[in-house]
Specification:
The protein is of the alpha+beta class. The chain has five helices and six strands, in the order H-H-H-E-E-H-E-H-E-E-E. It has helices at residues 11-61, 71-74, 91-103, 162-172, 193-197; strands at 138-142, 151-155, 182-184, 200-201, 204-205, 216-218. The N and C termini lie far apart (89 Å).
Amino acid sequence: MKKVKQSGFTLVEIAIVLVIIGLLLGGVLKGQELINSAKVRSLNDKFSGITAAWYAFQDRYRAVPGDYRQATTNINNTLRNGNGNALVGSGNEAGQVWAHLAAAGMISGQYNGSAITGPRYNCAVGTCPDNGFGRGMFLQYANEGTNTNNANELISGSSIPASILAELDRKSDDGLATSGTMRLGNGGAGWGGGAVSRCINGDNYELTTPSTDCAVVMRNF
């Protein structure tokens, strides 16, 4: 009987295929790394911009945005005044923070200045600036940061991946979720305790099974 010759891949062909697969995987992973780095830079720019605007407002008006008691006279008569005690101490003042800053030309965008009585971790975009992940950032006198006492503080808004926050903390603070000027939030209206527990591992951000719904509090206000 005539033998039938069976053909297959040579070792060279298999090696070429493996190299191509490796290059594709490397490109995908590198692309994801670049995307994450861009998100970290964007969030850092938002935090830095708000911090700079906060202090520029104080330098110009000798008052705290949202709390400024002469905002209607010295900035824009459509705004509401605060009580002038240097604290963003109410929902009304928290809603006016962004309206005061925007009207003074310290930040871009238009904000309606509505009093914020609802969730601190999920402020409506339009009343508060978008954190880049579909949630509004919130600034008020509180103690939402882990292991903190009351102060004027900026809540990032929820729905931020733990990996993004961990990288930003490493680059701009001490890299820990429970100390420094950037800390994981305690949780509250709009971001429940179960969500908090999925973002933290001891003093660190949870990166083994990282959550995509995390929030931090900035303590440099």
